[in-house]
Design a protein that fits this description.
Blueprint lengths: L1 E5 L2 E5 L8 E6 L2 E7 L5 E3 L6 E2 L5 H13 L1 H11 L2
Antiparallel strand pairs: 1-2, 2-3, 3-4, 4-5, 4-6
């Protein structure tokens, strides 16, 4: 497993994980799964458990998205290294 920590958010990639490229994120008790799209965009994964707990504060989710967007290159490299 590879991980980075930026601005209080821990991003993890699991080597045995499936496509599409994505990261598992933890921030203040929140768990978020973000897809790393080939067009350079970060978005919530298209799955029911993309945000846990489901009643998470919107500002926390926005923070995770913001930090991930700022670190897109590092996160895609992390995915690539874990799946080389």
């Amino acid at each position: 497993m590879g991980s980075y920590r930026f601005d209080g958010v821990t991003f993890r990639v699991y080597p045995e994980d499936h496509d599409p490229p994505h990261v598992h994120d933890r921030y203040q008790g929140l768990n978020v799964i973000l897809e790393l799209s080939t067009d350079g965009q970060i978005r919530l994964a298209d799955r029911e458990d993309a945000v846990r707990p489901p009643n998470a504060k919107r500002n926390q989710v926005k923070h995770v998205l913001k930090v991930a967007g700022e670190r897109f290159n590092e996160l895609t490299e992390l995915w690539g290294e874990a799946h080389a």
